[in-house]
Amino acid sequence: MSTAQNSTIFALATPPARSGVAIIRISGPQALSCLEQLSGKQGWQPNMARHARFFAPAPSSDPSSTLIDSGLGLFFKAPKSFTGEDVAELHVHGSMAIIRELLDLLTKLPGMRPAEPGEFSRRAFLNGKMDLIEAEGLADLIEAETKAQKRQALEQMTGGISRFYEDLRTKIIRSLALLEAYIDFPEEDIPQAVLAETQENIHSIQLLIKSALEQRQGEKIREGLSIAILGAPNVGKSSLINRLAGREAAIVSHHAGTTRDIIEIQMDIAGLPVRLWDTAGLRESQDDIEQEGIRRALARAGEADIKLVMFEAGREKDPESAALICNNSLIINNKIDIFPRAAIAPGEYAISTRTGEGIDLLLEALSHVIRQRFSSESAALITRSRHRALLSQALAHLDRYDSAMPLELACEELRQAALSIGKITGKIMVDDVLDVIFKQFCIGK
Ligand code: GDP
Question: What is the value of pTM for the model shown?
Fold first, then answer.
């Protein structure tokens, strides 16, 4: 996006649908004059809502047709606004006719154009109102569907995570400054004390980055985690997913081998978004399509964060499914309504998807496992693969640093490490990165 920043942009900030109130937001140098023109009023005070009627420029033939709506007008003076520019807001009745008329009218005013997705936030970023991490936090907040997602996005948006990255960058730059002082004096040996201090600083930064990279919970909370239901045909996998979904999401059939592809439902467990996969039954098969389904099921089993490995209570465990039991699995024995006296091994779960018995206990166990493994009180430092990639890059440069290297090369590694971290918060700007990030936003944000 290479549009001049001095144009005035506008967009509907509320959903394009019938509603009580609709808000149109205008940002740029003409925001105030636009508000004055539409309302026919002068003297707008910053941050004060004011009742107003909004008019289209009157065609002389029929002055009565010029009223569009009455509502509220608001003016925010630069730099004290969301974008850091002059901003006006029109709060009108949420009728599609009114919204269309106002947007059409704004398009016709000279120097004004509709905002592109994320353009308000992009301007806020360019005007120093927020850094990239905070902007991403805002986008995530708008997208948040579960409590944990909301909490994480809010933490990110309010600067908690930015501080971590800024501290890292400052620490690297401090070490760099210590060494750079000697570049201009090649005949002087760097004192051992300086080398030791730099080495120690770099080591502590490496540890901080490594421990951040080890955590995956930020990405899991943002993107959701996955649970695969696995087991032989007919053990009741589809019935379980339907029970959990509370609706007929998977086809339940007594013909073995019905679920040949993967069926997914979304759930909220322990405040985290969860994708639950129903997979093809695992067994020896001659059927090409079924074999493909089984291959996919096993691939999903590999990707899943948690596996629910299912058996029929009272029957011997089939070896294909038993092979999937691991640290990340819960073992489920289904159909306890037909085999009520089946011996259930300790640590395994007994359910009947038919009667619903044991399902609550299973859900509680799942919540417990998810909470233990994926949520924590401390804020996640990495919430996107972008952060992970740049942080790994920074670590690679720090790992290459060696005090025995020629000084210029050693400094260059530190400089590159600081640069990679600067790209995370946007201290170092790269235009194409900005395009990718802000285009993911919705229009009007
Ligand atoms: P899948 O092939 O593992 O997905 O199994 P389905 O969910 O399609 O179920 C296979 C058959 O077992 C169907 O006839 C279901 O009605 C039946 N079934 C599933 N769960 C139970 C249960 O808890 N008790 C009983 N009695 N039958 C069940």
Answer: 0.76
